[in-house]
């Protein structure tokens, strides 16, 4: 990447990271409070409803938004046509889910509470359809401050609402209200900050959008199944209490992705889309992204592995939740795999090859049920988790094999880039374990361990990157990201 674009990307990433911290903290606090107030079976009830409802994330806007982001020159007419289709689809899907909610609940023995949660969440279809797609201009311009306001402010307010309702009602329905409220508030803010969308009927434009998004839609459906099929399998094979333990562990692991991986992933596609016609720069950007994702993921994994028991001791004084710690530890490799897959997936989309993602995800889905069942029968939750981790790891390998066909980068260099932070992560893990060994308070262990992890990993990774040998020639340290931001500021000041 040239200095201007590189510093712009770094600044956008920092805005997403720092600006997204309050949003992610509120979402995490809502989850933690739910664990303290609800028992595993009640949390499992919400998880089951959320897994069924989760299809809304796939059948509404994401594929259309990706199409528009990939085409920075999209006209207002194209955006209006896409928004019109989204509105119609949102109302249609909301009505369907509302009326079939009792049937879907009965499939998994969810009961009336799951039906009620599904009907509350079904309104999010309408909200996501009404979201003003002119907000995509902020993505195209890498204006991450506006992106943050449009996509995250409503989620933050909704989390606060959920926290208050949960304290007042002590009922799992509060989580459903928070889940539905976020899309409505985000839709509202998209109209506040964006140019007005207008109803536009254009069959030709819809056809162009469909030709690109059909593979993304299919890939999204497969991706939804990959992310939620494990929940549905646990609910069907066991009970809602077991699902609560499993889903809470996953939610906390996923919080690590929310804090670091997802904000960086949001900026990857528009960045790589700008470089799609310059192969060498595209390859450099891809390697740099994989390096940052891998380093952050290794740091999170090493810290979580050492202090998982302490984290769950702090989480709740209910003894039922202590059983979730081993599940949490087994899920940690997912952070690394998901981070790398986000970077490489953005490369595939920027290169205009969504079909390749569909094929990879489809193979994962075909293998998931038989391998997941074998794992569950052999070792219960842990066996299922190992199966999921292995399948995602295979997808990561497939993407590293595909990447050289889209940009001048080798599979070997990508794998070395992914593994390069491992020594720093090992140093981090051993250092945290040694420092907290003399601390008996779980809160003290978690806080001191966090400070130790940040310090040790940052220093070790910086020294590793400065060796500049082999794959490390393109490694991105956290200091280099800050330098890009300074360069951006200096450039802006001089102009």
Describe this structure in words.
By secondary structure, the protein is mainly α. The chain is 83% helix and 0% strand. Helix 12 runs parallel beside helix 17 (422-436). The mean pLDDT is 78.
Rg of Cα set: 22 Å
Structural class label: mainly alpha
Low-confidence stretches: none
Mean pLDDT: 78
Percent strand equals under 5%
Q: Please give the count of helices.
A: 19
Number of strands: 0
Strand-and-helix sequence, N→C? Answer: HHHHHHHHHHHHHHHHHHH
Outline the secondary-structure elements:
Elements: H1 3-37, H2 40-53, H3 56-59, H4 62-70, H5 76-107, H6 111-130, H7 136-140, H8 144-169, H9 173-193, H10 203-237, H11 240-274, H12 279-315, H13 325-331, H14 333-350, H15 354-402, H16 411-419, H17 422-436, H18 442-466, H19 478-494
Helix pairs in contact: 1-8, 1-11, 1-19, 2-6, 2-10, 2-11, 4-10, 5-6, 6-9, 8-9, 10-11, 10-15, 11-12, 11-13, 11-14, 12-13, 12-14, 12-16, 12-17, 12-18, 13-15, 14-15, 15-16, 17-18
Task: Supply database-style keywords.
mainly alpha, 495 residues, single chain
Short characterization:
It is built from 19 helices and no strands. With 495 residues, the protein is mainly α.
């Amino acid at each position: 990447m040239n200095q201007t674009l590189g510093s712009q990307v770094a600044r956008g990433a920092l805005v997403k990271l720092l600006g997204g911290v309050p949003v992610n903290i509120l979402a995490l606090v809502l989850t933690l409070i739910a664990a303290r107030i609800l028992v595993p079976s009640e949390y499992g009830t919400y998880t089951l409803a959320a897994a069924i409802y989760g299809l809304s994330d796939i059948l509404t806007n994401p594929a259309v938004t990706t199409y528009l982001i990939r085409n920075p020159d999209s006209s207002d007419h194209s955006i209006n046509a896409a928004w019109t289709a989204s509105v119609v689809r949102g109302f249609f899907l909301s009505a369907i889910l509302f009326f079939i909610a009792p049937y879907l609940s009965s499939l998994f023995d969810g009961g009336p509470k799951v039906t009620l949660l599904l009907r509350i969440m079904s309104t999010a279809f309408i909200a996501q359809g009404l979201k003003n797609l002119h907000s995509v201009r902020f993505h195209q311009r890498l204006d991450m401050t506006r992106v943050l306001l449009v996509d995250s402010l409503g989620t933050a307010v909704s989390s606060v609402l959920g926290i208050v309702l949960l304290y007042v009602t002590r009922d799992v329905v509060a989580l459903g209200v928070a889940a539905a409220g976020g899309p409505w508030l985000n839709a509202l803010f998209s109209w506040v900050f964006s140019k007005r969308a207008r109803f536009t009927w254009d069959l030709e434009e819809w056809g162009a959008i469909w030709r690109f998004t059909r593979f993304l839609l299919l890939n999204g459906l497969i991706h939804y199944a990959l992310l939620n099929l494990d929940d549905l399998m646990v609910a069907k094979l066991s009970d809602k209490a077991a699902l609560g333990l499993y889903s809470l562990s996953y939610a906390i692991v996923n919080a690590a992705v929310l804090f670091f991986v997802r904000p960086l992933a949001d900026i990857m596609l528009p960045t790589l889309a700008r470089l799609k016609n310059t192969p060498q720069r595209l390859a450099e950007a891809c390697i740099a992204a994989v390096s940052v994702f891998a380093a952050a993921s290794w740091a999170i994994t090493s810290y979580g592995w050492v202090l998982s028991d302490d984290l769950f001791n702090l989480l709740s004084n209910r003894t039922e939740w202590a059983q979730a710690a081993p599940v949490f530890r087994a899920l940690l490799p997912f952070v690394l795999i998901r981070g790398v897959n986000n970077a490489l997936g953005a490369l595939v989309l920027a290169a205009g090859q969504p079909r390749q993602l569909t094929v990879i995800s489809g193979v994962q889905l075909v293998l998931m049920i038989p391998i997941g069942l074998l794992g569950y029968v052999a070792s219960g939750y842990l066996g299922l988790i190992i199966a999921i981790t292995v399948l995602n790891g295979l997808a990561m390998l497939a993407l590293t094999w595909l990447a050289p066909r889209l940009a001048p980068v080798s599979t070997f260099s990508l794998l070395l880039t992914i593994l390069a932070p491992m020594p720093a992560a090992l140093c981090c893990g051993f250092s945290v374990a040694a420092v907290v060994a003399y601390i008996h308070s779980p809160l003290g262990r978690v806080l001191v361990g966090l400070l130790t992890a940040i310090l040790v990993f940052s220093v070790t990774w910086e020294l590793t990157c400065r060796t500049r040998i082999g794959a490390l020639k393109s490694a991105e340290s956290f200091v280099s990201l800050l330098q890009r931001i300074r360069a951006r500021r200096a450039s802006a000041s001089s102009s």
